[in-house]
Amino acid sequence: MSAPDLALLQPVLSELAPQGRTALLPALHAAQDLYGYIPEPVAEEIARTLRIPLADVFGVLEFYALFHTEPVGKVIIHVCNDPACALAGADTVLKQLSRHAEYALETGELVSVTIEQAPCLGLCDHAPALLIQNTPATASPESTWQELVAKTGRRPQTHVDGDLRLLTKRCGSGQTTSLEAYLADGGYTALKKALAMSSTSVIEEIKASGLVGRGGAAFPTGLKWESAAQAQGSPKYVVCNADEAEPGTFKDRVLMEDDPHQILEGMIISAYAIGAEKGYFYIRGEYLNAYHTIQRAVEEARTANLLGAHILGSDFSFDIEIRRGAGAYICGEETALFESIEGKRGFPRVKPPFPTTHGLFGKPTVINNVETLANVPLILNLGAKEYRKIGTEKSPGPKLFCLSGDVHQPGLYEVPFGVTLRHLIFDLGGGLRSDVPFQAALIGGAAGTFATSDHLDTPLSFEGLRSAGLTLGSGVITVFDAQRDLRDVLYRLARFFAEESCGKCYPCQIGTQRQYEILARLRNGQFLPGDIERLQDVGWTMTDASLCGLGQTAASAILSALKYWPHLFQPAQPA
Amino acid sequence: MESSPVTLTIDGQTIQANPNTTILEAAQQVGIEIPTICYHEHCTANALCRICVVEVSNARALVPACIANVQEGVVVQTHSARVQRARRTILEMLHSSVDLSEAPEILAMAKNYNADPQRFPDAQRREPPVIDDNPMYIRDYAKCILCWRCVQVCAEDAQYTYAINFSGRGYETQISTFFHHAMPETTCVFCGQCVGVCPTGALKPKREWLLEQGHNPETIMQLTRSERRGKKRRANLTV
After folding, report:
1. CB of A505 closer than 8 Å to CB of A546
2. Which of A77, A361, B87, B120 has the fewest other C-beta atoms within 10 Å?
3. B235 vs chain A: nearest CA distance in angstroms?
4. Quick one: CATH architecture of A486-569?
5. Partners of A479 in the beta sheet?
6. Which chain A residues are Cβ-neighbours of B46 within 8 angstroms?
7. Are B179 and A69 within 8 A, CB to CB?
8. What top-level class would CATH report for the domain A398-481?
9. ipTM of the assembly?
10. What is the CATH number of domain A75-151?
């Protein structure tokens, strides 16, 4: 193999060099775009230019699934194998593609191709989902890779519907809402309102709205802003967490692809509220479409002086840098995301201290999920009082739900908090796809809990779900009909966590692996005495003792299955 | 700055401690032992082994005593049923993953907590081959529990050498040099600090290792002599 031409990389590297280590992921992405993978001399050159120890650069390369240290095929296909796609035949697609690729290689008719199994790609409504050269595609179990490659170019359009169309007002048309269209629809009036208010009053308004984070942890947004605004230290940062990767979730992707300015407006307002001049928009590596959409929107906003110095003639200056992840679910955990922006392995940090005082680069930081930020312009436009009329008293506002699996119409549904699970699945989603009755729904993704038919009348609100022993998580509902093998579903969830654990703390590093091994065995019908106790000990140890939210929820779905369906975990009793 | 002490309860004992004290230190002061594995008093505490977790009245999850500070009015239980289950299971999982035969403290701890070494009979163990690539020490990662101490002392905790970091992630994580290079090709200065802080015998002086392999001292001298001479010659050249 010939040595890579390092001169190709020089223009990018000299531009990134002044940033130092924080530019590591951007540099690696740029290098991989040029060479197809990261050869050793390239990694060395990047380390030298950005002044990072060699071993650390290798550590980062090894951490992120999208970076390759070995040559890969000219065409890279990622096939999702998580529950929603598995229901739609993802395993067959993977097998077929691999067989076609092998055959084509033997006959020499083909450019080289690399086919990889991938975690949830956020295309659950188009299952079985694939990425071909980072571009989303959908497949059928009969597809060949040649057909698939020919099909790319158009992004799959998500079905958007619901009882409300507030956050999704400009979503679902198949078009990205331009700045012009956003302004024509009253866009950025909330920002103008905010700029005429004191930052404290903006925070008070958000507090009064009762908005809590939509990424899964449900922390009160106003309190977070207030804490960062009052924190000592500068500069301060705001970060948009667009590392959406919870299996079954695609709401943030749709918001970013269809209505990017709504999110930017929320982010600019949050920066004004806490006194930040710089923001980071961190988008998961697999969401290349969303990355380009946000890129264009940021440029539009800069041209219109909605970003940059003296925004709309005020004293407030703020700009946004966009960052791409590189294939690590853990980077959706806020402190792991900071580490990633800082150019490190995505290891979560111990808390406290919390991000509002010690966040990105150790500075006071507000980090909010995409959907959370999309609520901000709505709150300022309506006023907190009107906003609170939506939803329930304890869970105010609209909520996006990602419905997929065995439902007639998978898609993104906007509803007020408090509608029932039944309403969402049967009235909005059109019920089950076939005549097979409902068996279960996984609420909250891989980190969520199972609901049974007994839960269908549970109100979808924080308090309603909590009292039923369920969690809302990021708003995922994956439906399984009565013919589905739940052991297979559990096996896939366990595999997901074993693959995505960062490996830092022992309970999750080893626990996710043991949990996966046991469920792989059960799926094949091999039972050992004591499996239930083993799973419970591993599960509760991860839940109780793990360092971050990933480990603390890695057994959630499995423990809920143990509660409802203990028979899945032991051999059939003789009649 | 002097701050006024806080009052808390640990295992039923009411104690006073400076607010900058960790729960681990506060417990030690009154003779309550909390086990630790990754913790080392000269390294940055990362709270990653989680064996020191305790139950604290105002926390939802268990709390690592090595880094969590005492707080006014909290009730701490260092040996509750939840704590014991977590510790026992972590020890059983360690047993199922790596060779603990040269980690007497962990073995004693496992016995103490009634951990069953065979709890996970079909577990995939981490068993990479021994790396013998330099005259000073060997790396036997089948014994590595990923406590991170070696990486830390090689970096900001002591030596600022940065010869090692990680490869892989999750259960597949391993301590590694840049692209798995042999140690002499890295920035390693053979200071030996990593060997000194390794708690499980995964890092070991080469001569000790050769002795264990059954070689007699003469052979060992022969086996390492040329290498040592090589070192000396290079040193002379730079004078």
Report:
1. yes
2. A361
3. 25
4. Up-down Bundle (1.20)
5. A405, A441
6. 350, 504
7. yes
8. alpha beta
9. 0.94
10. 3.40.30.10
Residue A502 touches chain B, beta carbons under 8 Å = yes
Nearest to A540 among B85, B170, B171 (CB): B85
In the block, residue with structure tokens 């014991």:
B84
CB proximity A541 to B under 8 Å: yes
A346 touches A336 (CB < 8 A): yes
| A54 shares contact with chain B (CB less than 8 Å) | yes
Task: Mutate one of B50, B71, B92, B141 to test the A interface: name it (highest A CB count within 10 A).
Answer: B50
CB contact under 8 A, B178 and A55: yes
CA dist A274 and A231 (Å) reads 9
Instruction: Check: CB of residue B122 under 8 Å from CB of residue A521.
Output: yes
Extents of the domains making up chain A: 6-63, 75-151, 160-387, 398-481, 486-569
pLDDT at B72: 96
What's the rounded Cα separation, in Å, for the pair B201 and B206? 12
For A180, counting Cβ atoms within 10 Å of its Cβ (0-12 exposed, 13-18 middle, 19+ buried), the class is: exposed
Chain A residue numbers touching B90 (CB-CB < 8 A): 506-507, 510, 541, 545
Residue of A nearest to B177 (CA): A55
* CB-CB neighbors (< 8 A) of A512 in chain B: 170-171
Q: How far B234 CA lies from chain A's nearest CA (Å)?
A: 24
Q: What is the pLDDT of residue B224?
A: 77
**Chain B partners of A534 at a C-beta cutoff of 8 Å?**
119-120
The answer to whether A292 contacts chain B (CB < 8 Å) is no
Measured CA angle at A281 (ends A276, A286), to 5 deg:
170
Kindly write down the DSSP assignment for every residue of A7-63, as one continuous string. GGGHHHHHHHGGGGGGGHHHHHHHHHHHHSS--HHHHHHHHHHHT--HHHHHHHHHH
The owner of tokens 């067989």 is A99
In angstroms, rounded to a whole number, what is the distance separating the alpha carbons of residues A96 and A90? 10
Per DSSP, the residues of A325-356 read --S-GGGGSHHHHHHHHTTS--PPPPSSSPTT
- Please, which pLDDT band fits residue B238 given cuts at 50, 70 and 90? very low
Q: pLDDT per residue over A229-264, tens digit each?
A: 999 999 999 999 999 999 999 999 999 999 999 999
Contact B82 A544 (CB under 8 A): yes
**The model's pTM:** 0.95
Q: How far is Cα A105 from Cα A330, in angstroms, rounded to an integer?
A: 35
Task: Report the alpha-carbon distance of residue B162 to residue B178 in Å, rounded.
Answer: 10
Domain architecture of chain B: domains with CATH? 6-79 (3.10.20.740), 137-238 (3.30.70.20)
CATH architecture for segment(s) A160-387: 3-Layer(aba) Sandwich (3.40)
Contact (CB, 8 A) for A145 and A164: no
**Parallel, antiparallel, or unpaired: how do β-strands A75-80 and A113-118 relate?**
parallel
